[in-house]
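Researcher: We're teaching a course module on how sequence relates to structure. For the next exercise, students receive a sequence and then see the predicted structure as tokens, so they can try to spot secondary structure elements on their own. Here is the exercise chain.
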Amino acid sequence: MQSKIEDKKKQKKNNLERAAYELFAEKGISGISVDQIVKRAKVAKGTFYLYFHDKTELLNKVIILYSTEIIHSAMVRAQQQNIESCVERIIFLVDDIIERFKRDPEILKIINKNLSEGLLNPTLLSAQAKENQTMEELLAAYTANMKKEKFSAQESFQLLYMIIELVAQVSYHAILRRQPTDIDHLKPILYESIRKILRR
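Model: And here is the predicted structure for the students to work with:
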């Protein structure tokens, strides 16, 4: 009985997060109210405040969930390629993330330039791939792979963080604003820059 109650609570929270994501993507963040979110989620307004203090807290949760899911999914796919070179594995990871943003620029509008939040919250599982490794396990695998290039665990994480920050910034401007040009024209320069960052 207890698990059914917990499942219902979790479902309501998920519905609020999904509704917020959809509305933020459709209408922007400032134009959305808590009333609109609860109406879309089909829950009572009081339910919203059981889980979130305000709209900002919900937005931050949505950003963390989606940034974690994007990075997690890309890491899993990169790992499945069995790419030996840590540099080329990271290039694959970056390319996967960029292609995801190209397919769904609405995600980029919400995450804005906060993609690295997914790395800063490694205890979260991917929203859509719970049977796969956790972010902590994936980060440990990447760290181990980067040791081949003589990076320490701390350096590995910091480099990955900086690269994800760079990718978020470039993707946001190039995909949503086409500045300084479109993302496909920037990709070769971006990837060569990442290769230079990762070479000892």
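Model: If you want an answer key for the exercise: The two ends are 57 Å apart (CA to CA). DSSP finds ten helices and no strands in the chain.
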